[in-house]
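Much of our argument rests on the idea that a fold can be written as discrete symbols. The record that follows shows the chain in one-letter code together with its fold in token form.
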Amino acid sequence: MATAYKLSLKHPDLQIVLLEKEPVLADHQTGNNSGVIHSGIYYIPGSSKAENCRNGRHQLVAFAQEHGIPHDICGKIILATTEEEVGRLKGIYTRGKQNQIEGIKLIDDIEIAQLEPHAVGLEAIHVPCTGIIDFRAAVNKMAELFLKQGKNQVKIGWRLEGITKNARSSILFNGSEKVEAARVIFCGGLQADRLAKLDGLNPEVATVPFRGDYYELTPQGKHKVKNLIYPVPDPAFPFLGVHFTRMTDGSVECGPNAVFGFKREGYNRTSFDVKDTSEALAFSGTWRLFAKHWRMGLHEQQRAWSKKLFLEALKKLIPSLEMQDIKRARSGVRAMTLKPNGAMVDDFLFLQQDRHLHVLNAPSPAATACLAIADNIINQLDIDL
């Protein structure tokens, strides 16, 4: 949606059609993530993630301010609870400085207590430019503005089933309905690799789903979190770890864990799809990832079913949490793009062929960076427009 919106601003004379297979926009990764406007503190300096996150964050906040999207630049702390984590925390702080993250500061236990009275740690990084936002509201506003431009269209419930090409254009099919276009941009998220294959490409990577389950703080526990509290990430594991996030509606979520998803768009612990599971398990990279992280993966699966184990992880940041302070909430599914050797594709990945451009990998912070990523996509296409 960000790409269509930005394209309509730069080329208002174009007729642009957005095709969405779901009955509403932002119904998967965008609408089920943690709602955080990321700072960009973790990413390798000079990487696409780092550059797009910083640029995209500024654009997203400006967009939210201009159009009244619910958001709050509330800040977060990254909390070290052991001496080993303190060492890693210093490395994150150095990287944040290299990434020009505004206002970051190393704080001690006294300052931690001032920001988050119930959090307990040795040291932390205060990241004041991190925020929260209603991403669904942002997407819907982009759609509203997009539709005001020229002859633009949003077709929901439109599942791509086939593609043909002629000398001048591409024809996309959904049953008997078709759309003809001079250029096509594929932003398929959890279906990115399948769309590339449908387009006759061999992406050499696979989209493997990982589900993240959240708990929510109950009314009696909600006062224990003021804004956002994150752990120091484990460098051996490709996820940030469970954390606390105050949402724009005032609720506080905690999580997510990270477990292999048996369904690409499955949001329950028992969700299962034969095709999704068999494709993921037939890919060599999936098994190589399992082999590397099997201990952590087993623990994550156990925690998915055990409220007690989930609480234990949360208590590392807020020791006073009790069982009655948390209740099970929603889940999200992350599209992890894997190479055949089991390595995670850690940065944004695009594949362009003729008139088509595929976004094969757009991991976090893609929602934060969406407007900046859109600029990159449009710049790649501008040669031909």
